[in-house]
Amino acid sequence: MTAPSLPDLAGHFGRYGGRFVPEALVRALDELEAAYRSAKTDPVFQAEFESLLVNYAGVPSLLYRAERFSAAVGAEILLKREDLNHTGAHKVRNVLGQALLAKRMGKPRVIAETGAGQHGVASATAAALLDLECVVYMGETDTERQALNVARMRMLGATVVPVTNGSRTLKDALNEALRDWVASVDTTHYLLGTAAGPHPFPEIVRDFVGGIGVEARAQCFELTGRLPDAVAACVGGGSNAIGIFHAFVPDEAVQLYGFEAGGDGVETGRHAASITGGSSGVLHGARTYVLQDDDGQTIESHSISAGLDYPGVGPEHAWLHDTGRATYEPVTDAEAMAAFQLLCRTEGIIPAIESAHALAGAARIAPRLREELGRTPTIVVNLSGRGDKDVHTAGAYFGILDPVETIVPGEQE
Amino acid sequence: MSIAEVFAKARAENRSVLIGCMPAGFPTVEDSIASMIAMHEAGCDVIEVELPYSDPVMDGPVIQRASDIALAAGVRTRDTLRIIEAVAGTGAPVVLMTYWNPIEKYGVNAFARDLAAAGATGMITPDLIPDEAAEWIAASDEHGIDRTFLVSPSSTDERIAMTVAQCRGFVYATALMGVTGARTSVSSQAPELVDRVRHADPHMPVGVGLGVGNGAQAAQVAGFADGVIVGSALIRCVLDAPDRATGITRLRALSAELAEGVRNPRN
């Protein structure tokens, strides 16, 4: 059964996790781990982190009873409003923690990888606040589909490097960030954006975002007088999911549901569901579930959501899956977009498309739980981010963008 | 000839070993076999076959591009074994350089068995450190494959000692903090790293890689290391050539220049 003391000293969650990295990075990982261990027990560091979360990021986020959405799906849905945090997603918690760690280690430069751009924007934000140089690696495909976030990062003073090799998406941005880090470890902290990668990143990121679950657990008690029946989150790399799951892991009556990006459907091969549609392997420094072919070559992932479009997943999720403590299911693009629209229309909240996967999943498990419990189930859904960045994608999906006559200045007679 | 014998022979000749790297299946299976045989004939003592991988985090742009070309042409793990068999069959000592996931997917013990059967003598693992290598150490022992782990300028003395103790054949010293690719000058960190390895084990041959691209640099590295590892510069001969014959001609010329370099170590 799940023990909260994981990972072990070598960074393993059962057979998952660990360090599958070039030797050149081992010292940096050791230093990071030592710095983190000392920060974790340092009341000054913890107070500084807490103060930034409260006074800068707007944490704790609300736990909001979404009554009209609840009525529509047949469950009591409580939304953990991480979309209301500064920068619009749960990721601000992780970047503030890691940027403080970078300062503590005396490293003046941070690098980050980003898919949708959310982690890049969050990293650029923390770097601006704490006066760190910031370089963000982003797949060229993603810089095109998330052009506004590229502009945001640049406004915040970060350098955005479009990555043009491989599939030009998140996994390639991660490769490039690792290559940068191998050459720059003396001055640079790699501000990894999700609870994945080599030890100690999965543990550090989990701990920095773990407040989501701690808060949600207390808020649910306050709101309903008891624990929820289930907790639902979307899973790409898995940081928002591990952030809300972790505090609930010892509560065995609380079911944990992770919803992966099913893309066009797992059966089509065009998806990003590493656990439900992949197999055990090694990618980006850890053993976990990955999308791979028979030769162990990484398969490109597909999702309407850039933030979930990643062919791996954090090792703790792999372990929670194998032990049965958490249940992982794929949610297709179509299901996610239906839930996206439903939340817009019933609650006046535009969610990130990533988070819409969790909403769709909650809607799916509601009748199942109702039957199992014989009453209306209570489901806490991590609304991990807001949908401002997705307006173009969603507008195109729903066909609601008015055709605009493009007039190029200087070309009209 | 085993890797130990190659290094012993070079030591007797008062020179370094030249290790030349080429991705399997780049640009095609047959072409890569021809390239490797030409490299060996022109003076590469050991052929380092790199198994193309989708996410090569230790590699710079040249090897990335060559690997992408090989993968796009459909090269499979079994093709890499076939290439090794063809090259080793000509008498060239062959080691494989591979990221870990393809081996884990193949099955670690089965791969060690098939690699030995194909005639390879050793395997270099850029993203497998001894800490995570229990299964590989057992499998390579069982099938008699030499293990080469990497050490880096950032490695502590404790880690160098631990890593060298797990190597057999030679240890790969990454000359600088960075990815593969030719540099204009040889890193000043390299001689110190080699000294630190020698301090941990005076008998373990040390190959130095990352950054060597011409005969003068090879001579310089040969002045302090037992082996000189060259990848990107050789691969570029093929990558930049207008046709196959020109690529082979350039490969032969560079291999000969590098071989001359390792025979004239500069201290």
TrEMBL record, chain A:
SUPFAM superfamilies: Tryptophan synthase beta subunit-like PLP-dependent enzymes (SSF53686). Pathway: Amino-acid biosynthesis; L-tryptophan biosynthesis; L-tryptophan from chorismate: step 5/5. Keywords: Amino-acid biosynthesis, Aromatic amino acid biosynthesis, Lyase, Pyridoxal phosphate, Tryptophan biosynthesis. Pfam families: PALP. It catalyses: (1S,2R)-1-C-(indol-3-yl)glycerol 3-phosphate + L-serine = D-glyceraldehyde 3-phosphate + L-tryptophan + H2O. Residues 60-385 form the Tryptophan synthase beta chain-like PALP domain. The keyword Lyase applies. InterPro entries: Trp_synth_beta, Trp_synth_beta/beta-like, TrpB-like_PALP, TrpB-like_PALP_sf. Signal peptide: none annotated. It comes from the Bacteria. CDD domains: Trp-synth_B. Its cofactor is pyridoxal 5'-phosphate. Its EC number is 4.2.1.20. The modification N6-(pyridoxal phosphate)lysine is found at residue 91. The keyword Lyase applies. The beta subunit is responsible for the synthesis of L-tryptophan from indole and L-serine. Belongs to the TrpB family. Tetramer of two alpha and two beta chains. NCBIfam families: trpB. This is Tryptophan synthase beta chain.
From TrEMBL, chain B:
Signal peptide: none annotated. It catalyses: (1S,2R)-1-C-(indol-3-yl)glycerol 3-phosphate + L-serine = D-glyceraldehyde 3-phosphate + L-tryptophan + H2O. Its EC number is 4.2.1.20. CDD domains: Tryptophan_synthase_alpha. It is an enzyme of class 4 (lyase). Belongs to the TrpA family. The alpha subunit is responsible for the aldol cleavage of indoleglycerol phosphate to indole and glyceraldehyde 3-phosphate. This is Tryptophan synthase alpha chain. It comes from Paractinoplanes deccanensis. The gene is trpA_2.
